[in-house]
Amino acid sequence: MASFTPQLATFKAPVIDNEPMRSYAPGSPERKALVEAVAQMEKELPFEVPCVINGKEVKTGKLAKQPMPATHAKHLCTYHEADQATVASAIEGALAAKTEWEAMPWNDRAAIFLKAADLVSGKYRYKLMAATMLGQGKNAWQAEIDAAAELADFFRFGVKYVEELYSQQPVKNAAGSWNRVEYRALEGFVLAVSPFNFTAIGGNLPGTPALVGNVVVWKPSPAAVYSNYIIHQILTEAGLPAGVIQFVPGPAEEVVGQAIAHPSFVSLHFTGSTFIFKKLWKDIAANLDTYKSYPRIVGETGGKNFHLVHPSAEIKNAVNQTVRQKCSALSRLYVASSIWNNGFKEQLLNEVAKLKVGPCTDFTNFIGPVIGRPAFDKITGYIQKAKDAGSEIIAGGSADDSTGYFVQPTVILTKDPKSVTMVEEIFGPVLTVFVYEDADYEKTLELIDTTTTYALTGSIFASDRKALVHATNRLRNAAGNVYYNEKCTGAVVGQQPFGGARGSGTNDKAGSISIFYRFVSARSIKENFVGLEDFSYPSNLA
Ligand SMILES: NC(=O)c1ccc[n+]([C@@H]2O[C@H](COP(=O)([O-])OP(=O)(O)OC[C@H]3O[C@@H](n4cnc5c(N)ncnc54)[C@H](O)[C@@H]3O)[C@@H](O)[C@H]2O)c1
Ligand SMILES: N[C@@H](CCC=O)C(=O)O
Question: Where along the chain is the active site annotated (predicted)?
Fold first, then answer.
């Protein structure tokens, strides 16, 4: 006889708010604490990172390194790569953990993630940030936004959204009956495959499905292993039962290939490049007959984000918003010639010249290194292609890989709105500018909409309301996140649900209630209280 879990109240989660950002200004206590955490980590590295399967460290002895993008001379950690047997036991262990995890009362699952959020924003804040700065090359401000604030927000707002989801119940009950809907976890295991550039996304990709009762095999990015391992340790300390999220770093193709070939694979939660996402989608499709269920495929991928600056725009704001960028960053700028020639160009170049590039351990550096050799070669290759195509490099253009992977913020001015750096994702500090004639606003909207296969983020700068509204309508499908008079990056959980469509992903909106629908499979329950006296219908009566 199965035992019942007493449910003696309907609990309400605490009021949820965004994690307040700390300033890290000189002399602030947080600056001091972060500097100490970075120094401590630099002293202790390189760390050894195991796989974590069923709550136990697994050291396969097959070693790989997570480099430090600012310093070739050192690496942040050496990690044990999962082999075939490890991946197999991760999958079996996750499936074995499933029954208890999905049966755990919601308030207990929620409490684990709320506690994890407090560990992220409290005890482990500076350690996680230090790992993100040293391993992924972010400056202090960006590490705060990502590893501290956004990760804590994902966990806390996730609880709020799941509470809302679970409370969505049928609005009608016929007399003598009660209708209910339960939101079951998916039948199988979820595979989370995360990118290098956001520590918070590392936590969110396994965290979101786990919160609604799924078990997850998580393959972190090789370039974010250490920060992601700390997240796994935090979840464990918060009380996540063994096996619910299996930490499986390792060779991407092998680990992911083995997981998606398994009959109990039920969902991919991916963030990374469009190319890899499409490849995995095709691989999953090829395995379709193997699976018990139709897999849910959820992915956020590349972008070619734009700023459109209308003749009515306020120049200083448009310039500063253009310069202050990060990951969902601006990549193509369409600016009206009257604006460009009346101060925008000059101010843009002045501001870009102030951007200091170098290791983020020096807090005065605004731009850190790019993540590694392939990124460095790709970015510098695009700068070269722009030069070869006759575009003008009006700022930056140089790069230095002697001690780390540093690329100067580069502004390319092109006369060809379909030149390669206006079209393809570069994912580095490179901006291409196309100056349009004021009279060609309409044509420019068409260009923005049709130049790339992506549709992640975009901004419209205008004080003329009609121009703003018109562009919004005209560019309805050109971006999943659109901003007015504000940079096209910096979406905050709970404020701007994030994600793009077209080639940029499935647009399931991380940091919102929408994404949770993808990781549950609803079951409708109808209960009858009165019984049926007679099978026949009144219309059958003679
Ligand atoms: N839209 C968003 O929300 C968002 C957020 C962050 C990053 N990104 C995108 O992510 C990309 C940068 O991240 P990245 O360089 O880590 O991406 P990536 O595609 O190289 O890697 C992402 C993940 O896929 C794995 N992977 C790589 N090759 C694989 C293969 N052949 N088979 C299976 N798995 C494989 C990687 O190990 C990693 O875990 C950019 O394109 C960026 O636009 C998008
Ligand atoms: N919150 C993020 C998500 C970016 C991920 O690439 C943003 O800054 O827009």
Answer: 300
Q: What is the Cα–Cα distance from 337 to 437, expressed in whole angstroms?
A: 5
Q: Which atom from ligand 2 is nearest to the alpha carbon of 327? A: 6
Residue among 221, 376, 506, 515 to mutate when testing ligand 1 (max atoms within 8 A of CB): 221
CA distance linking residue 243 with residue 225, whole number of Å: 19
Instruction: Give me the interface pTM, i.e. the ipTM.
Output: 0.99
Prediction pTM value: 0.98
Q: Which residues of 518-542 are buried (b: 16+ CB within 10 A; e: fewer)?
A: bbbbeeeeeeeeeeeeeeeeeeeee
| Ligand 1 in reach of 205 Cβ (< 6 A) | no
List the Cα angle 450/456/462 in 5-degree steps.
75
Q: For ligand 1, is residue 371 a contact (CB within 6 Å)? A: no
> What is the phi/psi pair of residue 211, to 5°?
-60, -35
pLDDT reported for residue 6: 81
Residue 116 Cα, ligand 2 centroid: separation in angstroms? Answer: 21
Structure tokens at 70: 């600012």
Does the CB atom of residue 507 touch ligand 1 within 6 A?
A: no
Look at residue 327 in the predicted model and tell me its pLDDT.
56
Does residue 25 surpass a pLDDT of 70? Answer: yes
For each of the domains in the chain, give its residue range(s) and CATH number, in order of start.
Answer: 29-301+505-525 (3.40.605.10), 305-484 (3.40.309.10)
Distances (CA, A) of 225 to 8, 46, 86, 128: 41, 12, 17, 12
Verify whether ligand 2 is closer than 6 Å to residue 498 (CB atom).
Answer: yes
- How far is CA 140 from each of CA 32, 47, 292, 366, rounded to the nearest angstrom? 12, 21, 45, 9
d(CA 271, CA 193): 7
